[in-house]
Amino acid sequence: MPVLARWIEAAGIPTVVVTMMPDLATKLHTPRTVGVEFPFGHPFGLPHEPAMQHRVLGEALHVLAGADRFGTRIDIDLEWPIPRKEAYRNWQPAEPSPIVQWWISRGALDR
Amino acid sequence: MIVDSYRFLPRSFRPIYENPEPHGTDHVWAPLEKRLSDSRIAILTSSGMYLEETQQPFDLERERAEPTWGDPSFRVIPSPADEIGLAHLHISHDDILADPNIALPVDRLAELARSGIVGEVAPRHLSVMGFQGTSLDGWRDIAAPGIIELLHEDEVDGLILAPV
After folding, report:
1. Distance separating alpha carbons of residues A3 and A1, to the nearest angstrom
2. Using CA atoms, how far apart are residues B120 and B61, in angstroms rounded to an integer?
3. Cis peptide leading into B105, omega within 30 of 0?
4. Can you tell me the distance from the alpha carbon of A98 to that of A28, in angstroms, rounded to the nearest whole number?
5. Which residues of B touch A40 (CB under 8 A)?
6. Cα(A28)–Cα(A5) distance, integer angstroms
7. In chain B, whose CA is at the least distance from the CA of A5?
8. CA A105 to CA A33: how far, in whole Å?
9. pLDDT computed for residue A110 by the predictor
10. Residue A67 domain-assigned?
11. ipTM value
12. Closest Cα of chain A to B85: distance in Å?
């Protein structure tokens, strides 16, 4: 997705990436990045929490419109309201994805 | 506060994300030329979202057979959209199906447009399936050109990308 953002920006359309992995985005040289410390699958927060969703969306628009230089990154100071262990379990699919199963079968992951 | 990018990632996955190979390092930059209150904004989600009634889901069968491959196509999600489905093998679907705004916040964007903070919600939003395996060639050749053409057609002024 950070690379896709670069291609779209290069075509003349301003972009901002809202991401749980802002370190990865900036290493891939995204023009504008908003970081959130949320579990995967939840870039704008919790379901049916419009205030939280507005906070992230508002920050994204703020950075999209107001960043004055390439590589601008703003992290949002919001703590995920569900305990980490539970949130960690909840975001994952019911069964490991094909690539994870493939890695496991090759001993590539130390689980 | 600086976000911990690895807080919710299994520890054994961390090395995969720590040293990514950049696809270009030049400072691509297109400033938003208008005021936000005059701008048309679109959103792109990587959640594998599609319209259950009218669109093919992303190809998960091939991914199951070929785990290092991910479907590089894209779907157009109108705003507002009904009958959202998800085709993505790497995340739980429960919360996004309960409220798609956590991945594609079109209702929130519409509220900001009604209050005048944003000019307009774009008529079409976009969805890809974020797992692309070992290569981004498919996105480069299929998704990116199609998405760019559509955004130009819709005269979109700015795009929010939200990987899941």
Report:
1. 5
2. 38
3. no
4. 25
5. 8-9, 90-91, 164
6. 10
7. B161
8. 35
9. 59
10. yes
11. 0.97
12. 14
What's the pLDDT tens digit per position in B137-156? 999 999 999 999 999 999 99
Q: What is the helix (H) or strand (E) element at residue B66, kind and residue range?
A: none
Whether residue A88 is contained in a domain is answered as: no
Confirm or reject contact between A63 and chain B (CB < 8 A).
Answer: no
A59 CB within 8 Å of a chain B CB: no
Are residues B24 and A29, on separate chains, in Cβ contact within 8 Å? yes
User: For residue A30, what are its two tokens?
Assistant: 């995204």
C-alpha distances (whole Å) from B13 to each of A41, B51, B164 are 16, 31, 16
- Residue A27 is part of which domain span? 2-82
CB distance from A71 to chain B under 8 Å? yes
Report the length, in residues, of chain B: 164
pLDDT at A111 over 70: no
Q: Domain coordinates of chain B in residue numbers?
A: 34-162
Total of domains in chain A: 1
> Which positions in chain A touch B17 (Cβ < 8 Å)?
21, 23-24
Are A47 and B4 inside 8 Å of each other by CB? no
pTM above 0.90, yes or no: yes
Quote the radius of gyration of chain A (alpha carbons, Å).
Answer: 16
Domain-embedded: residue A65: yes
Which residues, other chains included, contact B147 with Cβ-Cβ below 8 Å and sequence gap of 6+?
A4, A8, B44, B74, B126
